[in-house]
């Protein structure tokens, strides 16, 4: 006679061995820890502090001029108006300066990515006499303040006849040692097997760089492009030095040049600031994921 064994209650197996074949593994919720909550609160507080000046500038630019100095100060205008924007746009060449900034920042970004990536490929993927010395000199160039180079660069632009031209604004900004260093760190982490296989198939250095290295480097190329565009757009000192013709000025230089005409019209000053910052805010909102991904894949994350 056989005796059926009583069923034994077993605890649920969290390893997933008893799951139905083909079923997706259960998603585990990460418990909230005090450290995570504290980090969230600190991050939220910093975000609020960062956004407060932007919100104040935006709300002030939408106020009538009389409300900007009214006591007590109010965050929101009692009467919403675009008079400050109409005054700034109608009383200056904002459209031309915006085009100049977009053109110079775009061309500078393309040249920086091209030149820096080629230099980084030479440093990271090839061997030649003096490579380490040249790389060390390039890294040392990061420590040179750009203000030190203003006088010789301006003398060079005068000798070349590039004052008050787009190229006078663009060319001195093409040399970017920091971007070369970032790309060198990224290129050094790429697998060498792909390059060796391409060599065996008879590919040239240029073909390897253009068809293998660059497609694999999209995250760092995107990050470098965004960093370069933002820094070029915000650059005030060099365009201010090399341009005296209003038709050649970039947006930051042009707005500062006419800001004296605003006097104490705070609404118009804030409207000019919002106009100058708006393209960068749009770029950051659209490409913030690429920036984070690019930083994570370079040597900047500490890895």
From TrEMBL:
Keyword Transferase applies: no
Domain of life: Bacteria
Compartments (UniProt record): Cell membrane
Record field: transmembrane: 37-59, 102-121, 133-154, 166-187, 208-230, 269-287
InterPro entries for this protein: MetI-like, MetI-like_sf
GO biological process: transmembrane transport
Alphabetical keyword list: Cell membrane, Membrane, Transmembrane, Transmembrane helix, Transport
Topology within the bilayer: Multi-pass membrane protein
PROSITE patterns: ABC_TM1 (PS50928)
Protein family membership: Belongs to the binding-protein-dependent transport system permease family.
Name of this protein: L-arabinose transport system permease protein AraQ
Lineage of source species: Bacteria, Bacillati, Actinomycetota, Actinomycetes, Pseudonocardiales
Gene this chain is encoded by: araQ1
């Amino acid at each position: 006679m056989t005796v059926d064994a009583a069923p034994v209650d077993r605890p649920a197996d969290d390893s997933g061995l008893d799951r139905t074949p083909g079923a997706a593994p259960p998603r585990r919720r990460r418990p909230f820890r005090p450290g995570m909550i504290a980090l969230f609160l600190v991050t939220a507080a910093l975000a609020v502090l960062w956004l407060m000046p932007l919100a104040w500038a935006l709300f002030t630019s939408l106020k009538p001029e009389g409300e900007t100095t009214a006591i007590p100060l109010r965050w929101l205008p009692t009467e919403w108006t675009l008079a400050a924007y109409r005054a700034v746009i109608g009383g200056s060449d904002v459209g031309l300066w915006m085009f100049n900034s977009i053109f110079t920042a775009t061309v500078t970004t393309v040249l920086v990515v091209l030149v820096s990536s080629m230099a980084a490929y030479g440093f990271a993927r090839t061997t030649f006499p003096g490579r380490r010395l040249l790389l060390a000199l390039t890294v040392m160039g990061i420590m040179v303040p750009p203000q030190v180079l203003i006088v010789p660069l301006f003398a060079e632009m005068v000798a070349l006849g590039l004052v008050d031209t787009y190229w006078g604004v663009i060319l001195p900004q093409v040399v970017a040692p920091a971007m070369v260093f970032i790309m060198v760190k990224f290129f050094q982490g790429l697998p060498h097997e792909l390059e060796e296989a391409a060599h065996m198939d008879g590919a040239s250095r240029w073909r390897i760089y253009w068809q293998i290295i660059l497609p694999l480097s999209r995250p760092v190329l995107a990050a470098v492009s965004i960093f370069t565009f933002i820094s070029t757009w915000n650059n005030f000192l060099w365009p201010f030095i090399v341009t005296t013709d209003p038709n050649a000025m970039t947006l930051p230089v042009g707005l500062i040049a006419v800001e004296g005409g605003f006097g104490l019209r705070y609404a118009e000053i804030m409207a000019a600031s919002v106009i100058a910052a708006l393209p960068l805010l749009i770029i950051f909102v659209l490409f913030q994921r690429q920036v984070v991904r690019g930083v994570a894949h370079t040597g900047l994350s500490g890895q």
